[in-house]
Amino acid sequence: MSKKILLGVTGGIACYKSVHLCRLMVKAGYEVKVIMTPAACSFVTPLTFQAITGNRIYINEFDAGVEPDIIEHVWLAGWADEFIIAPATANIIAKIAHGIADDLLTSTVLPYKKPIFIAPSMNVDMYANPVTQKNLALLSSFGHDLIDPNTGEMACRTEGKGRMAEPEEIFDYVFCKEKPLSGLKVLVTAGATAEAIDPVRFITNRSSGKMGLAVVRQAKALGAEVRLVAGLTSVGTEGFDTVKVQSALEMLDAVQKEIAQTDILVMAAAVADFRVAEYSETKIKKTDEAEITIRLVKNPDILKELAPLKKNGQVFAGFAAESDNLEVNARKKLAEKGLDMIAANDISRKDIGFETDDNEIMIFSSDREPFSTGKVSKDTAAEKLLLFARELYGKKNGSV
Ligand code: C5P
Predict the structure, then answer these.
(1) Each residue of 36-45: b (16+ CB within 10 Å) or e?
(2) Second label for 150, Cα 20 to 30 Å away, from 132, 163, 180, 244?
């Protein structure tokens, strides 16, 4: 059976390129249905898409009498194998980022269960606007797959980033994207462990889990089968195969259970170095004492515990958050924790790392000279890290 593709077209001048994208998909043998927003109909007529796809075009949610036996938006969401929105205006991006469902297209987005391919298209300043950037980061954090716009001349006679990717690029991205991690099992830890003091209090580390979740998303996009062991995160883990844990001991246990079935381990979690020695079963009462003492004992180092279990073909990657002596400390951890590679970042910088959407990591390995990802989105940093892990995996397992 041919693949079923749902194409969402929103109101931007790049609509004319979507006609060509539609044609490419039909020529490839896919069945294509198109949802247009009313604004898109001002740029290209529905008849154009209808002639190309041979299907009726969906525009208005409330077309009484047309296919009365289906609830259109739910039916379309269930019908599609892949969902592409091209062009995606700043407006639709904002609506999807905030769960607004006020037309057929956005109402179809909400019940759709898989990541959507979204090809932004807008004026350079609209694209650079922090609100748009924040909305794009949100889409990415929900697992949607953003197809980066190109830089160049715009319809509004300006130059810069915001031109929708070319139809051929979108086609290749969706249907021909290389899957270098396909067939591999990737285990990722993310977020911070929480070490309980009593039923209501705990000690934790500062970590949003954004970097670990970016690794999860990218590993999936690169074709891996991914399992996540998550501590506390401020970003959602919905939609991923996740084991939720609290303490470092629980994380150790979960990772030990998974490790034999893992090809690549990425330990991105911020594991607490210490836990409370005597957990109080009841809430510790506020007394008149001016101070109390909580005794801490050392947690096991998960990576060090795993080192003896490591099989020859496996690749282990760790993270090192450093405020000084980045290289010396990263290399020390690489050796002591039995790692193949370590991604170090400078936490003294405010523009990257904790809670931000960007990162710049330096990757150390015993295999080659350290290299920097440059300051990029956490997703791009994650992709670079994983491609290097794949390279090491290839060397260990006799295929590059
Ligand atoms: O020693 P440090 O905490 O800087 O090392 C960071 C790396 O070690 C990270 O990959 C982290 O997930 C891992 N780690 C661990 N067990 C701990 C502490 C950190 O596996 N107890």
Answers:
(1) bbebbbebbe
(2) 180
